[in-house]
Specification:
There is one protein chain. Helices cover about 15% and strands about 20% of the residues. It is of the alpha+beta class. The strands form three sheets. A five-stranded mixed beta sheet has the order 7-4-5-8-9. The chain has a two-stranded antiparallel ribbon with strand order 1-2. Strands 3-6 form a two-stranded antiparallel sheet. It starts with a helix and ends in a 22-residue tail after the last strand.
Length: about 180
Amino acid sequence: LALDRYESSRGFFPAAHTVDADGNAMHSWRSDLLPMVEHSELAERIDFSEPWDSSENTPIHKTEVPVLLCPSSPEVTTRTNYLGVNGPGSFFYDATKRLRADVADGLDKTISVVDVGPDMPVHWMAPKDLAAEAAESFDEQTRTNHIYVIQVLFLDGHVEGLSTDVDPVIPPALLTIAAQDEIAE
């Protein structure tokens, strides 16, 4: 819902991360979404002109944002299990701001975020996500916070648990925005 609110208010979805004048990654899409998840005050404290891990932003590093952590995680922390799928044909692609019209495959057939397991979280401010190739390689051995499923968020707002008993766990067609792939039911 936060992604939808962001797009409705700005006319585009957030990029995977913001960049500085030299193209260096600065802040995650999760930081951009803070006002959409009732954390406007926290967003106002972030110095977006400095990298997320700069000394100016250090006071915010210890802030926990429970909405950015899977409820099945063993503890609340400053890390997040919610990683965007990032790649050239994916919804998130570095500093690219996608339009709703860019998602030709349909919002209901495009995965934006994967709930990764306890070995893969990142700091919620960090401009780090899940490479599309890594998402394609999830299998029954991938540890998650859920038994036998990997939770994924589609752009229309629905969440599905994809069975780890199926190969591939995450069909590559669901990781693209405009490939017009056929998706097996």
